[in-house]
Amino acid sequence: MRRFLFLASILCFLSLQPTLADGPPEGADPATWCQENEEACAEWCADNPEAEICQEPECD
Question: Is residue 41 assigned to a domain?
Answer without folding.
Answer: yes
